[in-house]
Amino acid sequence: MENNSAFRFSHTFTVTEADIDELGHANNVQYVRWVQDTAGAHWLTAYPPGEREAYIWVVLEHRIRYHRPSFAGEELRGTTWIGEIRGAQCQRFVRIERVSDGVLLCEAETQWVLLDPKSQRPKRIEEAVVQRLWGPVG
Question: What does the DSSP 8-state code read for residue 25?
Answer without folding.
Answer: S
